[in-house]
């Protein structure tokens, strides 16, 4: 019954979206105050040592299993946008020569450093590695933050050996319900599409929560990622590909369809939250 209800709601939201005019583009400040009270605070992502450890172990297992066992033959890995680097820690425990980079070195976990993971503070758009250095390049929960994701993808392929694997798991995408990554400041799903930046800043200033950092996300739509994959189809083979939906808040699309239609012509932009993909370099 729950799945049938979701299907009906998705169909209804799509119809409302497709029939909507492109204005008004935004809701007002009073709507923000009212709607914010209707949603509970989001749970914290988890930044404790135990969270890093558990998440790193789970992701490393998922990564190694993603290619049907083929990735277990990899010997040298590079993690892009690693932050704590605990996925690389567990890969190192599996025998890989693990490298991990992040733009800042503030988050490198001492456990991974002490274990031998080779950390470097580095811009992912300009990797300081020779061509074809690694047989595995991967990134978790970072690709939606890279402002020049196309350049990062190009660099990742450059340092990857032919036959090597490029794994990405990331989200929420910008137009998904929590795509602004602002749930601890503004509770309303899709707030980035319902109110302009200045209104959200005014609101967080008045209620005393942290200002939303728009620079923290890249603003890419689903279609822009699809176009990126297509642009490199001659260089990579797709081993696995999943677009993971989030349809829990389509009631907002039904109630305020013009706010959404004024931002995109593609309904899929609003419901695809995450992407999970494994490429192999030709």
Structure, explained:
There is one protein chain. The chain is an alpha/beta fold and 282 residues long. The protein has twelve helices and seven strands. The protein has a seven-stranded mixed beta sheet with strand order 3-2-1-4-5-7-6. α5 links the parallel β2 and β3. α3 crosses α4. It is globular and about 55 Å long. The model has no long low-confidence stretch (mean pLDDT 96).
Key descriptive features of the protein:
282 residues, alpha/beta, seven-stranded mixed β-sheet, 12 helices, 7 strands
Give a nutshell description of this structure.
This protein has 282 residues and is α/β, with parallel strands linked by helices. It contains 12 helices and 7 strands. It has helices at 2-19, 29-38, 49-65, 86-93, 110-115, 149-158, 191-194, 197-207, 222-231, 250-255, 257-261, 268-271; strands at 76-80, 97-102, 118-121, 134-140, 160-170, 236-245, 272-281.
- Give the overall silhouette: globular
Strand portion:
15-25%
The count of β-strands is 7
Helical segment count: 12
Distance between the termini: 44 Å
Strand order of the biggest β-sheet: 3-2-1-4-5-7-6
What does the secondary structure layout of this molecule look like, with pairings?
Layout: H1 2-19, H2 29-38, H3 49-65, E1 76-80, H4 86-93, E2 97-102, H5 110-115, E3 118-121, E4 134-140, H6 149-158, E5 160-170, H7 191-194, H8 197-207, H9 222-231, E6 236-245, H10 250-255, H11 257-261, H12 268-271, E7 272-281
Parallel strand pairs: 1-2, 1-4, 2-3, 4-5
Antiparallel strand pairs: 5-7, 6-7
Helix pairs in contact: 3-4
């Amino acid at each position: 019954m729950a799945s049938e209800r979701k299907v009906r709601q998705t169909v209804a939201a799509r119809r409302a979206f497709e029939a909507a005019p492109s204005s008004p583009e935004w809701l007002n400040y009073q709507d923000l105050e009212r709607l914010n009270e209707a949603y509970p605070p989001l749970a914290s992502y988890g930044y404790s040592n135990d969270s890093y450890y558990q998440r790193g172990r789970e992701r490393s297992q998922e990564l190694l299993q993603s290619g049907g066992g083929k990735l277990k033959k990899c010997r040298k890995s590079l993690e892009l946008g690693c932050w704590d680097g605990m996925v690389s820690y567990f890969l190192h425990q599996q025998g890989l020569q693990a490298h991990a980079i992040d733009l800042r070195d503030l988050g490198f976990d001492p456990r991974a450093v002490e274990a031998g993971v080779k950390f470097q503070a580095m811009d992912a758009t300009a990797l300081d590695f020779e061509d074809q250095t690694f047989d595995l390049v991967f990134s978790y929960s970072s690709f939606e933050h890279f402002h020049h994701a196309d350049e990062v993808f190009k660099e990742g392929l450059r340092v990857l050996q032919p036959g090597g694997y490029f794994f990405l798991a990331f989200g929420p995408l910008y137009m998904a319900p929590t795509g602004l990554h602002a749930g601890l400041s503004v509770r309303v799903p899709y707030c980035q599409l319902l109110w302009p930046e200045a209104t959200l800043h005014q609101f967080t200033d008045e209620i005393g929560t942290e200002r939303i950092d728009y620079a923290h996300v890249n603003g890419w739509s689903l279609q822009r990622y699809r176009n990126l994959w297509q642009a490199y189809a001659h260089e990579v083979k797709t081993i696995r590909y999943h677009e993971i939906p989030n349809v829990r808040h389509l009631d907002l699309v039904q109630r305020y369809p013009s706010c959404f239609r004024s931002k995109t012509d593609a309904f899929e932009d609003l419901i695809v939250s995450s992407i999970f993909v494994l490429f192999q370099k030709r």
